[in-house]
Design goal:
Layout: E1 2-5, E2 10-15, E3 20-26, E4 44-45, E5 50-55, E6 61-65, E7 72-77, E8 80-83, E9 88-92, E10 97-103, E11 106-112, E12 115-120, E13 125-129, E14 135-140, E15 144-151, E16 156-162, E17 181-186, E18 192-197, H1 212-225
Antiparallel strand pairs: 1-2, 2-3, 4-7, 5-6, 6-9, 7-8, 9-10, 11-12, 12-13, 13-14, 15-16, 16-17, 17-18
Length: 226
């Protein structure tokens, strides 16, 4: 089980059978020295903000990160200090390669029908890449995409969209608050089929399709708690 240790910029390999950490991989070697960056912004934090570990189509171990340089920059907007976005991408840990995709708060990369679907959250889109990480499409989501599951058999993807946080209402493109919801998309045409509101929760982080066995397990747990 691979875990993204976001705060400490690590990929952690965890063995659930022994309940022990089997390996830690630091991203430190990929951090670019500040004096080599052509940037006038002085407010920074040393953080890649890695939020997912995954295997690509070649089987290589990769990390999805917000800040490709290893530094989080901040900017002043309307008397607010906010994180600057647009520097996200992927690091291939096996090949030691950095893919600069210029993503804004990327989340939830999924391998769907030979493509990579990535939530370009702050840009309020789902970016679609081919096997070689060439951009081949984009789906407007109208919100902060985070969490995806899909059925290749039915040809449908379910994209989670988190409610807009109040502190961003003054700076996001629409300036409007949206509720938590699921966007249903046709995988082949990339067209929106439906939007399902998810009330009474603060944020939406992940989306999963449960098979009958897993669903029965959850129902069994609920029965024990009653």
């Amino acid at each position: 089980l691979w875990i993204a240790n976001t705060e400490f910029d690590e990929a952690i390999k965890f063995d659930p059978y022994s309940n022990k950490i089997a390996q830690r991989i630091s991203l430190e070697e990929f951090r670019i020295a500040l004096d080599k960056l052509d940037d006038e912004i002085k407010e920074t934090k040393d953080q890649f903000h890695c939020n997912q570990i995954f295997r690509d189509y070649n089987g290589d171990l990769c990390v999805l990160i917000h800040n490709i340089t290893g530094w989080q920059f901040y900017r002043q907007v309307m008397e607010m200090v906010i994180r600057r976005q647009g520097d996200g991408g992927v690091i291939n840990l096996d090949k030691k390669e950095i893919l600069r995709l210029k993503l804004q708060s990327p989340h939830s990369v999924r391998k769907i029908n030979g493509e990579y679907w990535v939530q370009d959250s702050t840009d309020q889109t789902t970016k679609i890449y081919d096997h070689n990480w060439k951009l081949v499409g984009s789906i407007p989501t109208g919100g902060f995409g985070r969490g995806v599951d899909f059925s290749e058999e039915e040809g449908i993807a379910y994209i989670g969209i988190s409610a807009t946080r109040k502190r961003y209402l003054r700076v996001i493109p629409t300036g409007e608050k949206h509720d938590n919801r699921i966007m249903v998309v046709d995988i082949k045409t990339r067209e929106k089929i439906d939007v399902i509101s998810i009330p009474n929760i603060e944020q939406l982080d992940n989306v999963y399709i449960l098979n009958k066995k897993i669903k029965a397990s959850f129902e069994g747990l609920n029965a024990l708690n009653e």
